[in-house]
Amino acid sequence: MWFGILGLVFGLVLGIFAPISIPISLARYTAVGIVGILDSILGAMKGSLQKKYQTSIFLSGLVTNMALAIFITYIGDKLGLDLYLAVLVAFTIRMLNNIGIIRYSFLEKFIGGKKILDEKINEEKQTNN
Predict the structure, then answer these.
(1) 54 within some domain
(2) 21: helix, coil or strand?
(3) For residue range 21-48, what is the model confidence (pLDDT) as tens digits?
(4) Which of 21, 36, 64, 99 is 20 to 30 A from 115, alpha carbon to alpha carbon?
């Protein structure tokens, strides 16, 4: 999980300071590709916290999400439809769900453990009385 976070930070810093400009005609494709990648990264973080992370699943999901998002955007451009908006909405909903699960996992791991311990102590006190 930490490699993913470090890679994301490194990529953001590189993107901010690198003198690369993307043509406006490719802006949609870049946006949906990035959102697909972010969805995969958040999914990997969720999998890592749930002890279900596998590198092969992460990498295949990363490539598939990005390629599918770009393909749907391309088809939409050819049909004269703004299908990239549907891609952005779908990936955003998935990302928000993943963020919710990640947040819950952190809370359960750091706060929940203390709460369970407190409940056990209270149960022992009640059984002893």
Answers:
(1) yes
(2) coil
(3) 888 989 899 999 989 988 998 998 888 8
(4) 99
